[in-house]
Design brief:
2 helices, 23% helix, 146 residues, alpha+beta
Length: 146
C-alpha cells in the first residue's frame, strides 16, 4: 500500500498491476473476528482497535476492547456477521474496517483466516480456558443464540 499524491510518489509503487482507490480520512482501524458453524450459527469476538506503525504500516498495538461507543461496536459486529453470511463461510473470518472521521464504517479487507487480531484473541481465549473462566466462544461448537 502506498499513498500517491503526485508523480513524485510513483517510485513508492511496487512493480506490477495495482488498484487505485480514493484516500479515506481514517480515524481508526477496527477488526471483528467472526466464526460460523455448519448450521449457520455465528459468534463474534469483541471489536478490537488496531494501531499501526506509521513507517512499517504494520499493527503495533491492539486495543481490546476498541475505544468506540456501543453503537459503533454493534454496527461493526453487524457488518462482520453480514459479511460471513454473504460469503457462506464456515469457520473464521476476520473483517477489518476503517472508521472514518465522519463516523462511517467501511470494510477495508476480509481474510478467511486468523489475522493479527485473531491470533491475540485466541491467546486470550486459551488463557481464559486455563484459568477456568468463561470463553466467549468455541470455534468448533457453541450454543445457538436464544
Amino acid at each position: 500500500m502506498a499513498v500517491i499524491q503526485s508523480a513524485a510518489d510513483l517510485p513508492k509503487l511496487l512493480p506490477g498491476a495495482c488498484i487505485i482507490e480514493p484516500l479515506v480520512d481514517i480515524a481508526k482501524e477496527l477488526s471483528v473476528i467472526v466464526a460460523r458453524n455448519e448450521s449457520g450459527d455465528i459468534q463474534a469476538f469483541p471489536v478490537v482497535e488496531m494501531d499501526f506503525n506509521p513507517d512499517a504500516n504494520l499493527v503495533e498495538w491492539l486495543l481490546c476492547p476498541a475505544h468506540v461507543d456501543s453503537r459503533l461496536e454493534k454496527e461493526a459486529e453487524r457488518l462482520a456477521r453480514q459479511t460471513i453470511e454473504s460469503f457462506g463461510i464456515c469457520g473464521l473470518l476476520a473483517v477489518e474496517l476503517f472508521l472514518t472521521k465522519n463516523g462511517e464504517l467501511l470494510i477495508n479487507e476480509v481474510a478467511p483466516r486468523p489475522t493479527t487480531a485473531a491470533t491475540i484473541l485466541s491467546k486470550v481465549a486459551i488463557h481464559r480456558n486455563l484459568s477456568n473462566t468463561s470463553v466467549p466462544c468455541s470455534i468448533c461448537r457453541w450454543a445457538a443464540p436464544k
